[in-house]
Specification:
Distance between the termini: 127 Å
CATH topology of the largest domain: Spore Coat Polysaccharide Biosynthesis Protein SpsA, Chain A
CATH superfamily of the largest domain: Spore Coat Polysaccharide Biosynthesis Protein SpsA, Chain A
Oligomer: single chain
C-alpha cells in the first residue's frame, strides 16, 4: 500500500489597499476546490489603509475557522511593489511551494485560480501570468479603458522587441509564482512602485525561469485606479532599457542578477562578432588546446566538437564533466601546477582581470615555454570603454556581478597597458582587435541586435580605445632568459664536444693545436 502523496503548499496572497467594499466579496469567491487540492493558506496584507480593510479581513478570519488565514497590516504604506515584497517574503519564510497574488479590489477573478495553478502543479512552469490580451479585444469587452488597452499593447510590443520575448501582456497583476523561483531572484531590490511587476518579469527572464501565460477574463468595475499612466510607462521603459544594458554587460544592475554561487553566468557569446566567436575561429581543427580559466567549460566543449584535443584549467571543476576533456583544478593565483608542453594553443579568455598578480602569472607561465612558438588568444575588458568614462564623469564606479566592473576583477586594462603587460612578459603580439558589446545576447540576433552590433563595430573603426567593450589579442610565445641560458649552455657543450671529436678535415680525431713556428715580428 503506497503512502498518500503530500499536497503542495499554496499561499493565496490577497494584496489589499482601501478594499473595505470588495475584500469580503473577493475572499468568498476563492473556489473550494483550491483548499481541497492544496495545503492552502490565505494571507491578506493591508497596506496601511485608513478604512476598515484590516478589520474586515479579521472578521472574515474569525467567521471562517475552517480556513487557515493570516491578516496583516503594514503600519506604514509600502506601495504596490513594497506590499508584494511582504507577501513573497512570507511565502519564503513559511516554506510554501507556490504563491498566488489576488487583488483585493476584485479586478482579477479568483475563480480562475484552479486553472492557473495547473502548469505549476505539473512542473511545466515557474511562473504563470493571467493575460487579458490573449483573446482578441477581450480586454475592451471587459471594460478596460481604450487608452489603457492601447498603452498596454504599445508597451508590451516594445518590451518584447527589446527583450526577445513573446509575451501577450507584461502588465497583468494576476501572477502565480513558484517560491523556488522567487528564491533565485533579488525581488527585495525592486521598486516599491507599480513597475515592480515589470522588474520581477525581467528578473525571472534573466534567471531562466519558465513563464507561461493563460487567458483570463477582464473585469473593470468602479475601483479607483491609483496608477499614473505616464509615469508608469516611463518607469517601465527605463527598467526594460536598463535590463538590456545590464544583460549586454554595459551597465551593471544588481537587481537584475539571478542569485547564484557558481560561475555559470559566464556563458558563451557565439553566432555574432564577439570575443568567443573570434577565439573559436582562431583555433584550427585538430589543434591541441589548453583553456586556462575555462569557467563553466562551454568553450572547451565547442573546441572538442571542432576536433581539438582540449584540456581546461579552472579553480572550479566543471558542473557537467565531459570525458573528452582533461581537467586541471587550479587556483591561478597560486603557483602553477599544470604543464603547457603538450599544447600548441593557449586560451586566456577573460581571465587576467581576475588575477591578483597577472605579471607574476604570465612570468611563471613563460618559464614553461621553449623555442616552439605557441599561439596565445587572450581577451579582457576595456576599462576605457565610453560607458565607463561617462560613469566616471558622473562620479560613478560601481562594481557588480558581471561586465567590465565585475566585482571579482582585481586588475583592469586599456589597449596600451595590455600591450605593455604582454610585451614585458615576452609575447610577440600578432593582432589586436576591439570587441563590441554583446548586444545580440540581449536583443536577439534579429534586426535590433544586428543593428546595435553593426553600429558598435563602426564606432570601433573610429576609435578602438573609446568604443571597444573588450580587447582581443593574438600573440606568440617566446621562452624566458633562464630557458635561453640553459639551452645555450647545453647546445654549446654539445657543439664543443662535436668539435673535439671531428678534425677540421673530417679524417680523424682532432689533435691539440701546436704553437706557431713563425718567428715573432720585429719591432722598430
Amino acid at each position: 500500500m503506497t503512502a498518500p502523496s503530500k499536497q503542495p503548499r499554496l499561499l493565496i496572497f490577497v494584496i489589499a489597499y482601501y478594499a473595505e467594499s470588495t475584500l469580503r466579496w473577493v475572499l468568498e469567491r476563492i473556489p473550494a476546490s483550491v483548499f481541497q487540492t492544496y495545503d492552502c493558506e490565505v494571507l491578506v496584507v493591508d497596506d496601511a489603509s485608513e478604512d476598515r480593510t484590516f478589520e474586515i479581513g479579521r472578521e472574515y478570519q474569525e467567521n471562517h475557522p475552517d480556513i487557515r488565514m493570516t491578516v496583516l497590516r503594514n503600519e506604514h504604506n509600502q506601495g504596490y511593489g513594497g506590499n508584494q515584497k511582504v507577501g513573497y517574503a512570507y511565502a519564503i519564510s513559511e516554506g510554501f511551494d507556490f504563491v498566488a497574488m489576488v487583488h483585493g479590489d476584485g479586478q482579477y477573478a479568483p475563480e480562475e485560480l484552479p486553472r492557473l495553478m495547473e502548469p505549476l502543479r505539473s512542473s511545466q512552469a515557474d511562473a504563470v501570468f493571467g493575460s487579458r490580451m490573449m483573446s482578441r479585444f477581450g480586454a475592451l469587452k471587459g471594460g478596460m479603458p481604450l487608452y489603457k488597452y492601447v498603452g498596454n499593447k504599445i508597451l508590451t510590443t516594445v518590451q518584447n522587441a527589446l527583450l526577445g520575448t513573446r509575451l501577450s501582456e507584461f502588465h497583468s497583476g494576476y501572477r502565480i509564482y513558484s517560491v523556488a523561483a522567487l528564491r533565485r531572484i533579488p525581488f527585495q531590490l525592486n521598486s516599491n512602485d507599480f513597475h515592480f511587476d515589470t522588474e520581477i518579469i525581467l528578473q525571472l527572464l534573466n534567471s531562466g525561469a519558465r513563464i507561461q501565460e493563460l487567458s483570463i477574463p477582464t473585469y473593470y468595475g468602479d475601483e479607483i485606479s491609483r496608477v499614473n499612466g505616464m509615469k508608469y510607462a516611463k518607469d517601465v521603459m527605463l527598467a526594460t532599457v536598463r535590463n538590456v544594458l545590464h544583460r549586454a554587460g554595459v551597465l551593471y544592475q544588481r537587481r537584475y542578477d539571478a542569485i547564484s554561487d557558481d560561475n555559470r553566468h559566464y556563458d558563451l557569446k557565439l553566432g555574432y562578432a564577439s570575443s568567443h566567436s573570434w577565439a573559436l575561429d582562431a583555433v584550427p581543427s585538430g589543434a591541441r588546446v589548453l583553456d586556462i580559466g575555462a569557467g563553466p567549460g562551454g568553450m572547451a566543449r565547442e573546441l572538442v566538437n571542432k576536433g581539438c584535443t582540449t584540456a581546461v584549467v579552472d579553480q572550479h571543476p566543471p558542473a557537467e564533466p565531459d570525458p573528452r576533456i582533461q581537467v586541471h583544478v587550479q587556483n591561478l593565483d597560486e603557483p602553477l601546477r599544470f604543464s603547457v608542453k603538450d599544447y600548441d594553443h593557449l586560451l586566456l579568455l577573460d581571465v587576467i582581470e581576475h588575477l591578483k598578480d597577472p605579471e607574476r602569472f604570465l612570468a611563471e607561465l613563460r618559464q614553461q615555454f621553449d623555442y616552439t612558438p605557441r599561439k596565445l588568444v587572450l581577451t579582457t575588458p576595456n576599462v576605457a570603454f565610453i560607458v565607463q568614462r561617462l560613469m566616471l564623469l558622473g562620479g560613478q564606479f560601481n562594481y557588480g556581478k558581471a561586465g567590465i566592473l565585475d566585482r571579482t576583477h582585481t586588475r583592469l586594462f586599456t589597449f596600451r597597458s595590455l600591450r605593455h603587460l604582454l610585451r614585458d612578459n615576452g609575447f610577440r603580439i600578432k593582432e589586436v582587435r576591439g570587441v563590441p558589446a554583446p548586444f545580440p545576447k540581449v536583443l536577439g540576433n534579429g534586426v535590433l541586435g544586428k543593428a546595435a552590433l553593426g553600429a558598435n563595430l563602426a564606432l570601433i573603426r573610429l576609435s578602438k580605445s573609446l568604443f571597444s567593450y573588450q580587447i582581443y589579442v593574438e600573440a606568440e610565445t617566446t621562452p624566458d632568459v633562464s630557458f635561453v641560458l640553459k639551452d645555450s649552455k647545453e647546445k654549446s657543450a654539445m657543439r664543443a664536444q662535436q668539435l673535439r671529436k671531428t678534425p677540421p678535415d673530417g679524417k680523424g680525431p682532432a689533435s691539440p693545436e701546436k704553437p706557431s713556428q713563425r718567428p715573432p715580428r720585429r719591432t722598430a
